[in-house]
Design a protein that fits this description.
By secondary structure, the protein is an alpha/beta fold. The chain contains 17 helices and 49 strands. α10 runs parallel beside α11.
Length: about 850
Amino acid sequence: MKKTVFLLVVALLISVIALAQFENFNLYFGNLHSHTSYSDGKGTPEIAYNYARNAGHLDFHAVTDHAHYFEQELMDGRDKFDAMKEAARNASDENFLAIAGFEWTATGWGHINIFETPDWTDRNESPNLDVLYKWIVERKALAQFNHPISTFGIFDDFKYDPRADEYINLVEVGNGNWSLGDTISPEMFNAVRLAFAKGWHLGTAVGQDNHKPNWGTANDSRTAVYSPSLKWEDFYESLMARRTYGTEDKDVVVEFSGNGYPLGSIIYDAKEVELKIKVKESEDDIISKVVLYNKTGIYRVFDVNSNSFEHIEKIVPDTGYDYYFLYVLEADGEEVVSTPIWVQSSSKTYLLNPALYPSNVKPGEIVKAKFQLVNANETEKSLHVVIKASTGNILSEETYTLNGMTSREFVIEFAPESVEDSPIEFYVNDELYYKVDLTIRSGESMNIVIDKTHDNHGMKNREILKATLDAAGHKITEAERILKPTNFTNTDVFVLPLPGTEGYFETVKILMPPHAKMIENFVKSGGTLIVLGNGVELSDKILGSYNSLLKLLGLPVQFGDVNSSEVEEISGIYFDGYREIEGAGTYYEKAVGKGKVILFAGDPFTDTVIEKNGELLEELFGVEEIMAPEVVSLPVVLIDVAHGNDYSREKLNDFSAAIDSWGYLSKFSYGKLTEDVLKEVSLLIIMDGTGFTEEEYKAVKKFFENGGRLILTGKSDFRNGSHPQAMNKFLELIGSSIRINDDQIIDRTDNYGAYYKVEIKTFPDSPLELTGIRKLDVYSGCSLIVKGKDVLIFAAGDDDTESVDQDGRGDAVRVDMVIFAAGEVIGNSKVAVLGKAVFSDYDFKHPKNDNYKFTKALIDWLMK
């Protein structure tokens, strides 16, 4: 009874401590990243501090000019950083804290803010991260990772340095000074998650990164800091302790604690963790969701739909290293990301970030386990790593010696013994750190590889085949980009479809001799090769390269002319088009070396015909049931190619692949745009086209009114070949203030070979993440006519970019400024309009332009 009472009292005390924890601090909102004329911004630090305080109503503000500008002193001979620090001291009082810092800028490595140091360094003196980290550690300087995105650098993929981790205690999860305040991007959020996974202990921040005189007024994005006061000593300690969160909302209150310790804390050897969550907004600002993350991903999701939320989550840690942080989404789309609370072993020897390659194997196949070991002690330590099966069997073990305050990556090989071995467990010195799932199939299953490296037929039309083989217990992978010897490692069956209509470079479709030699070695070593014909006309050079493979394998047959491009049933097998196999008919099989070769005159495995070929699948792969592919709930991006559009399907391969890689599902529309076609679509792209029916206009209007997103593109009026009237009718129906002009844009100075090949280099402030973008290449584009005050300008020409009436019909509208790309928020929908589609295969991924980056930023904004 006494023990029970004691436990209740302890639990009550912990709860009271957690509730009272934040009463010891004030909550301050401000900005830790901005620039002035001391580098590439506007105004002076004095002006910036005064503006941030009086116009921006910030509690604190840091000026962090690029350090490489400090080489040049001020006109009065003062060092710029010394002058900035003097300005900061003069601007600070009990109600406002001015902070002096500098930004180390080395694009490729990344950008890092360093605050209130006695001196400064730049990329010339400290040319890489190792040198800079040493400089920071020597001065015990507070530092912050800035905008971790590929454009600037992600700090060598956040390679972990335990010593630098003591002082680099902040990271931007959001960055930007556009007025809409959409600053927390998926790329930054995922990069910050990577930093946590690698071992960094970082407080989250959102910086406005002002380069204009809008310090604090650019948007509502802020860094929130819990501190006893705005005295620098208190505030410095609070930042070093990571008591922060990054927010797009300027006054949202987030209280997050663990066992009574506030966010940013490290809790050692906890047997149980009580996480207390409290989020509070103003009365008319609704919180949609609160998501609790840990090291493995989403731990729990709370649907809130209120202006306040409180919850206590009790967790029993089962590994020696974990962390928990909050993501908050408000109804207006604003986001908040808290600093984690870390729960760790006091041994300070950790195993982090493990990965298994491959992740799908049969018993006995070799798996490589890659992981990171950390010794955060001051002295050398031995770390005994044991990899166990879930059954308790030891699969591999190794002892490593690490110097104090070091981190290194290691690889151990092991082979699972049975299908019961998953998940795989990682131990260090008898303490469990991770459990990682490994797919272990039966020993009788097959490893099947399908070639996609030669623009093969049906590349995007084999979902049923993949789902069926997967359900049957086989492993099916695709060889992509270029054929490699590793594509044949542990492979049982290699499927080689002849090239199809995809792509347009003949050299890609040709089977080169080195690749044919790989296939020959694979077959003669015991593999099965299945070659699929089709009904596509191929050049003699392309088809001859595949017949050379058959000759290399010693086969007395070869592929010949196309017999049919339609679905045909021959001898009980349905083909999605077929051609002659000279010397064999429609099917041929022969043993070669230790393996065998199977030839089909046509393709029986596309989604069009595969469901009729059940007996064939059973004979080849032991499949008992054909499975429909699992429906993946990805936002659909539909590209219209049915109305004589600017570019046809064949010129949009790179664009389609990029959309898929960005987390969406690209599809093409080859028919009418009906309500039924558009009902599952999130983003509709219509390039300059014609012949739209009234029903199609109505369907697109309804799609937009229901929250759909829209991209419309024009093109120049060269030879009167554009259709602005047809395209503008869409804009009129949805209530847009943007129109496509009946003109051509030209530039006699900024072009890539001709005046109509315009280089667009002006990108006004907008919600698009366009940092680091240099130019767009625009081939024969037109301008936009913008009348509404709420239109967002994304890209424009410069002073000598001209609008001309190229077709001479007098139908071009005169414009004072050549606007190339613009967008508009209308109700719950968004529309983006461009004077030309900049995403064709001709220019989308050209290394000398930024069409890819711009298009991604545009779609990210639309889909936000």
